[in-house]
Amino acid sequence: MPNILVCYKWVLDEQDIKVRPDDLSLDASRAKGKISDFDRNAIEAASLLVEAQGGNVDALAFGTQALKLSVKDVLSRGPNRLTWIGDASAEGADAFVVANVLAAAIRKAGPYDLILCGEGSSDMFFQQTPVRLAALLGLPCVTFVQKMTWADGVLTATRKLPDCTEEVRVAGPAVVSVLGEMNKPRIPSLKQVLGAAKKPSEELPLSSLGLAPGDLEPRAVRGTPKGFLMNRRNIVYKESDAAANVAQLVASLKAEGL
Amino acid sequence: MAGIFVFSEDPALARQLLTPGLELKAALDQPLVALTPSRDEAQTLAGLGADRVVVLEGPGTPEALAPAVAALVAQAGVVLVGGTLRGKHLAAHVAAALNAGLTTDAKTIRAEGGRLETTRILYGGLAVCEESLALPAVATIPQRTFPPPAPTGASAPVEAAAVTADPRVEVLSTTPVAGEGVDIGAAPRLVAVGRGFGAKADLDLAVDLAGALKAELACTRGIAEDEHWLPVERYIGISGQTVKPELYVAAGLSGQVQHMVGCRESKVIVAINKDERAPIFEAADYGIVGDLYTVLPLLTAALKA
Ligand SMILES: Cc1cc2nc3c(=O)[nH]c(=O)nc-3n(C[C@H](O)[C@H](O)[C@H](O)COP(=O)(O)OP(=O)(O)OC[C@H]3O[C@@H](n4cnc5c(N)ncnc54)[C@H](O)[C@@H]3O)c2cc1C
Ligand SMILES: Nc1ncnc2c1ncn2[C@@H]1O[C@H](COP(=O)(O)O)[C@@H](O)[C@H]1O
Q1: Which of A67, A122, A137, B133 could connect to A63 by a Cys-Cys bridge, CB 3.0–4.6 Å?
Q2: Does the beta-carbon distance from B276 to A238 stay under 8 Å?
Q3: CB atoms closer than 10 angstroms to residue B277
Q4: Cβ(B227) to ligand 1 under 6 A?
Q5: Using the 8-state DSSP alphabet, how is residue B53 labeled?
Q6: What is the CB neighbour count within 10 angstroms for residue B156?
Q7: Is A179 on the interface with B (CB under 8 A)?
Q8: Cα–Cα distance between B8 and B14 in angstroms, integer?
Q9: The domain over range B184-304 is classified in CATH as 3.40.50.1220
Q10: For residue range A120-139, what is the model confidence (pLDDT) as tens digits?
Q11: Looking at the 3D structure of chain A, how many domains does it have?
């Protein structure tokens, strides 16, 4: 029975972030947190696997203190136990730093048979963390996985490549990054939500991981983000008469020379 | 040996990488080395300004290629990798091996003050930011970000390096993706469909409209990846294609930023959606609020008239 770890990131919902038209800065004051989209697929994949054949699922996250808000949500989706590292430095972290932190935590809590990640985080979309993590832990990594099964310590996974899909078999521990189309994440039931409150979660201080200062220094330093402003005509035809709307649109397209 | 290294298994992308590669070569005064899994492509790259070309001979899986490339670029200043799925896996492994920073999908790239300065998008395309990377540095670069360089008339030496399989990952079977080889990026007009279409057969409405407009069909990620109604090469967005047609007609799609980032440089964007508050109307020049099942046939007929 597999011992599985799911790594998830707690991100701001990008649909709530607004661009200030005057200086193109981002206004995230109304943005709520969410479990990064494809990490919900990774959690679901792990939960389905152990619900079918037994085993254990742990969850791990590195972020700021805002991670506290994620505890119930994550645990109601299946994992038995959560470890989280909350530190302000997570804000400016690049994938080099994130992977160093996660790898150090896994060395403490592991070993795991399977480490599942999403294909990319919804906010940064580095698409690096799982591969870096595998390299640091000396494990193979199967990326962009659409389908997977586990039997007798052997993972069989279908991964996407530019021109084909490949079915691969990995014996022994591995890191996997899952695609969004792998499954439909559950909406936790009331029972699952109530059950989550009883599950253990532990905050690990960053300083307890034994990392050197250089391990926590981003190699890619991010500047201040600048919002992209749509500059479009926004002419909308919304009469009740569909034919009239169509006629107006066709006239507009003609005027555009199209 | 120090150097600017470029790698892509995609021939067109491999050539395009030489353009920023040549700029970095000039700025950092390091030789430009092209790595390729294809012996045929090696000859082409050798005539496009690379100082040296290395053919990677062996399996083309990410886990086999990545350590082979990491070994070849151990002393690199900069490594540029084509941003395909295979390339992204490989680049992350190389960056980990070099303890280096990696910009994903760099839009611009230049060397300055002994660092690599790049720009990329965040929050699904809502924002852009700069990244400043210590050397050695790695970047992935999407398709069509740069044009290929002109042939030099010279031909650089071509060598070979062996790639060995990773015994831990066994490939059981390979299924080619049923693509049609259509280059959606080259189409001057596109009709894009989303989840507003209730069934695959209903896409005929969009096919008819595309016929009347002389347009190609495109779609959102869900239509390609979840429903498999259209091939993946037709989906637009941050994880799909980037297009800049003169006309982009978006029917029954909500217009979320992860999709729009792939088409927002279109000259004219038209939206057809039954929900007046759908974000697509903010991103469109012209829109019709209405049911696509009514509007599309009317529009097709009006265009044919
Ligand atoms: C990290 C990440 C990367 C992503 N990358 C991509 C990407 O590359 N490309 C991409 O497309 N998406 C991507 N997505 C998904 C994206 O966020 C949206 O979920 C997706 O684009 C929405 O697809 P849709 O518009 O088809 O569906 P929906 O959002 O469900 O929209 C359907 C629309 O159809 C309208 N509609 C319904 N019925 C009718 C009708 N009868 N007539 C007219 N209108 C109707 C509805 O009002 C609605 O606006 C990504 C998401 C994440 C988190
Ligand atoms: N701070 C984090 N904490 C835990 N897991 C993370 C974190 N950042 C990234 N991941 C995992 O790595 C995947 C890819 O993220 P990224 O490399 O940022 O695109 C995510 O889907 C998560 O599974």
Answers
A1: A67
A2: yes
A3: 9
A4: no
A5: E
A6: 21
A7: yes
A8: 5
A9: yes
A10: 999 999 999 999 999 999 99
A11: 1
